[in-house]
Amino acid sequence: MTNAPTDQTALDLAHAAMLADESDDTARLRFYERLADSEMFLLLAEEPVDDNVTPELFEVSDDRFVLIFDREDRLAQFVGREAPYAALSGRMIASILAGQGIGLGVNLEVAPSSILIPSEAVVWLDQTLGQTPEEAEARIEEIGRPMGLPEALLTALDAKLATATGLAHSAYLAGATYEGGARNHLLAFIDAVPAAEGALAQAVSEALTFSGIEAGALDVSFLRASDPLAAKLAQWGLRFDLPQHEEAQEVGLSAPGSDPEKPPILR
């Protein structure tokens, strides 16, 4: 019997929605999206050395798994003692393990989201996260209200943008008519950090993918608040406010893998 805290995490809720209807592909995709976006605690066999981490490997029916948990207390509850771990995003763990024949044991025995994910699914997740949106240029002639978008996409965008702390001030979702008469929906980020534009475009692409919607269903652009088009978007568009960094933050030592530019080395 699973012994878990009464407060459920986003991963617990996504897992429950997936189990509620196993024929619901969107719910299954949403679970994998939550897994990719969540900070996970990877159980290690020994303390990290520099950027080298050695995961604890477990064999189940001739398959190998690492163990990851979405809360530190869940890892401690499973192990029953102090144990070394590395805090990494689910997407980084998938990237590290893909192609090595290693699966994921998620929250085993300590949460309602306890699940074994085979190595083939880890490869699929890494490949899905690696898809990049295409770039194109087109002149916008008219802005209107967004119409007819699936509720699943709006929910996915809201959840995805809630993780984009400090990458932009806000975003507007609107209908757009382009030069030549083509129409599509547009998500425009306002005052995005220049170095973050690629990450924001990728986040939108993932929201579409994990909602089961074709990538071409939404265009992405980046504007300054002073741009005249931004005023039209504010008038007609659906606004998303992105979370911002607190002004004062305590600086401390970072765990291996906490810097996305310097992923840990798996041994």
TrEMBL record:
Pfam families: SseB. It comes from the Bacteria. Residues 248-267 are annotated as: Disordered. It comes from Thalassovita autumnalis. Residues 19-122 form the SseB protein N-terminal domain. The lineage of its organism: Bacteria, Pseudomonadati, Pseudomonadota, Alphaproteobacteria, Rhodobacterales. This is SseB protein N-terminal domain-containing protein. InterPro entries: SseB_N.
